[in-house]
């Protein structure tokens, strides 16, 4: 197999990153995360020389079939295979370079090619437009707002009427035109005056949808991208105040709000020239309950070197710090701390999605995972894959925020994760906490 104009996959540390497992062949291709060669050395199963890696999965679940691994591979190879975290996406396997911790081939053309393939894989979600939105340095709620607006899922009159909600189809702000996302945020009278003042093109001939319009103005006005994003949100806030409180802003008030919030947010989130954003460490040495009426989940992972595995601990508490639910998940084979931390966050997101969509804060103590979740960076390693999956899962939960705390403030999740070494299977508690965490739960509530 050839890639990138001459780089031969059979050497040089290029191996498959297993995702769907349908491209990489078990005995023919390099896919073990092994810096020496990546090939399986055990003999192929007669008649199955071309079998692909997905045949080693438990069908329908993202885990390895341990019994098959025991039958086919040496203990050493089995250990390497079990270190590979399986993905829930099922996208095609891709090539990465084990020598680079982000999985990139060092030759520039190879890198470019990989980038292209990478973004082609996200036709509807992570194309360059979504990447631009993700990269905007604005509050997460505003990014989520832009995402929803571009997906046309704002509660505008046209959208509600399509869902058979009986409301007037006129725009509540100008009372002249039918309301749509494009009208409300770009073409409505006040919106147009705001955009004119900022020198941004809001002409109806520019685009037929809000997504297209935003795409065009963001790429034509790179230096004020953030302000454009914030202004869309300020216009929408104004529209909501008209609807719900019969108030309305002037052009200057909308712009002042948008600039003001952006400025405040930057003060907090972009302190000058710090290499990596460390959220106010000292204040976070203690666990804090979430705001009234919301829920928080804490997650942690523990590695069990001598058992060759890891465990995840998840705990959900309410605004009074009361226990809501907890989960312990033991996994075999994973021994890389970073992979384990990222897997813990992925487990938390999948659990919330199904059982506790009301949770708004996902708190962890791994700064590397937290930082990776905050920025969009192409990373072809397994760690990168897990971060991508986390971000993808979070898109469906627009209210969810990631948060980082010191380890000392993450003791309940930590205790649960450590306890995973004595469990064989996943276990879940709700309403009543397991006895062995009652002391740490109490300690979090003390006012020291
Ligand atoms: Zn209007």
UniProtKB/TrEMBL annotation:
- What Gene3D superfamilies does this protein map onto? Ribonuclease H-like superfamily/Ribonuclease H
**Highest taxon of the source?**
Eukaryota
Where does this protein come from, organism-wise?
Fraxinus pennsylvanica
One GO MF annotation is: RNA-DNA hybrid ribonuclease activity
Give residue ranges for domain RNase H type-1.
Answer: 298-420
Q: Which residues form the Reverse transcriptase zinc-binding domain?
A: 105-195
State the protein's name. Uncharacterized protein
Q: Which InterPro entries match?
A: RNase_H-like_dom_plant, RNase_H-like_EbsB-rel, RNaseH-like_sf, RNaseH_domain, RNaseH_sf, RVT-Znf
